[in-house]
Amino acid sequence: MTWSIVARDPRTGHMGIAVASRFFAVGGTVPHIKGRVGAIATQAFVSPLYGTDGLTLLAEGKSPDEIIATLTSRDVGFRQRQMHLIDADGRNAAFTGEKCVDWAGHLVDENVSVAGNMLAGPEVIAATLRVYKDRASSGAPMAECLLDAMDAGEAAGGDKRGRQSAAVVIYRDQDYPWLRIHADDHAEPLVELRRLYAVAQERYLHVAETMPTRDNPHGMIDRTVIDQKIAALEAVRDAEGRASASFATAWKPL
User: 18, exposed or middle or buried, with CB in 10 Å at 0-12, 13-18, 19+?
Assistant: First the structure.
């Protein structure tokens, strides 16, 4: 009842998942990520254990293909499950059970995979993958790549039942997310994710850059740097607002 994209930035090792569905709070069950370990999306007749246990197996050094074999072999409901995953080295794999509701399937490419079920058709995941690769190759930020990719999938038909929830989750190299935004019950969840991402860029992501890490357990505790970045952003936006207002005042219809 969902489609999702699981990706890794080969330049940085950062990992991200984006997901959308005609289902409540899809971001609470589908995406599972751990920094320096891997990322897993578990969906269809969802088993959260594919995510939690899959991350444990990735941390133990198992390959994505081995993990799929292990998880499906112990689960009598595996024919109704779907999952795809990537590890910290970029190895990835996907599984779609034959009893997943049509249209269902997956695509696996270098450092990225897309999978979905109960979709309008295969063009949904094809468009999602194509746009992600195009944007990633241009050097766009991962969050923008994921959002643009999901928009393309939605434009291609998305979940054939409609829209309700969506999420974007990005981890860098820590056990906590760098960004996690959800639209749990919304008429236009992907539009809402765009709004939340824009709000996150105002202050939150500046603060996220200062948080403690494994390599720097103190983080950055000087608020001056954060305040300067926020002030600079606000100055740019104020200037853009004044320019727009000036144009609107000067322009007159014939």
Answer: buried
Token pair of 70 as six digits: 């292990």
Distance CA(166)–CA(191), nearest Å, equals: 10
Handedness of CA 185, 14, 100, 67 (dihedral sign): negative
Q: What is the mean pLDDT of each run of 10 residues along the chain (254 residues)?
A: 94 97 97 97 97 98 98 98 98 98 97 97 98 97 98 95 96 95 98 98 92 90 80 75 60 52
Closest by Cα among 160, 155, 78 to 116: 160
* C-alpha atoms less than 13 angstroms from C-alpha of 239 in its C-beta half-sphere: 6
With residue 92 as reference, give the H or E element that holds it.
strand 92-96
The count of residues in the chain is 254
Choose among 129, 214, 131: nearest CA to 171. 214
